[in-house]
Specification:
Elements (H helix, E strand, L loop, with lengths): L1 H10 L14 H51 L5 H9 L3 E5 L2 E4 H18 L7 H31 L5 H10 L2 E2 L2 E2 L2 H12 L3 H21 L1 H17 L3 H7 L9 E4 L3 E2 L3 E2 L2 E2 H4 L7 E6 L5 E10 L3 E10 L2 H11 L3 E3 L16
Antiparallel strand pairs: 1-2, 1-12, 3-4, 5-11, 6-11, 7-8, 9-10, 10-11
Helix pairs in contact: 3-4, 4-5, 5-8, 6-8, 9-10
Amino acid sequence: MKKLRIKSLRNKQPDQSPGRITNETVAEHREQILAGGRRFKYPIQYAKHKLVINAVVITLAAIAVLAVFGWWQLYIVQNSSGFMYRLTQLIPVPVAVIDGQQVRYSDYLVRYRPSEFYSSKYDELKIDSKDSEEQLQYYKRESLDKAITEAYATKIANEKGITISNDDVKALVESQLDTANGRISEKTQETSARMMYDLTLQDYRLTVSRSLLRARVAFAIDEVAKQKTDQAAELLKTANGDFATVAAKLQDKSSEQAVAGDSSLIDFTARFGGLQVSDLAKLKVGDMTGPVTTMNDSGYYFVKIVDKTEAKIRFTFLFIPLTELDNRVSKLKESGKVSEFIKVSAAKSDDTNPQP
């Protein structure tokens, strides 16, 4: 029995694992070490890969949720808060489209928000009341119509190369510094705009710029009004300032009628139908001038000074309105080339327009 055990031990194979590291066994040792490390490496790589995928999925889901929430706030709730206004300035989402031209939501809000703010603060309308809802619906309709027309005017301006410079905007803004109580500073103007309409000076300059561009386009494309104005200028050479007679001769069923009227006494610092009265105050009693283009897209005026005091002026006038731009917009609406993305219904309103 003892001999069998000794023989068995002798026949036992020696340990095949390498002992010392030599030039012949270094490759084998390296492979053993790497094989042991792979057990820890590949699970970590897999975890990182999964983490990246999860992060991407969560990010995309969050963006989708925010997009849906933003859409709901803008197009269903019609949130007009300052935050949403600034957001739509950064992200140019549309509120409407006219003849392929996008109407930016921010351009609508910069028109609507001052009216909403003024009404809530100074008109003493009760929130959620029927009168308040009708009034706000009117301002929404008015603001959206202005934004649509201004977007279409921008399209025409781009086609015809019509531009508005910073100097044009600055000149008009500075003309508003003259008030009945004297000239105010830009800081006072900015404070007043923010207090009355919650408008920054930058927002106010934006509305001025868009109004100026709209006016410039309206004058550029209205050939009918221009022809009537030239005709009126010829008739007035022999009419001796009789605007009523000239207006009667200019009547045409195919276009808006010319209007003759009397301003009554008004302050030098006032505006009359788009006219800057301070410019007319430089004339003497009996002087006649025209055609004078309005600051907005109203039309042409011929003016005769009737009376003048130290602070007030009275004049008679002949007014020839611009109609081409509004007519084009109306035809585009009738032909289905205007799409609105928010629901705004027409509503009755009083005669007060709180927009600056």
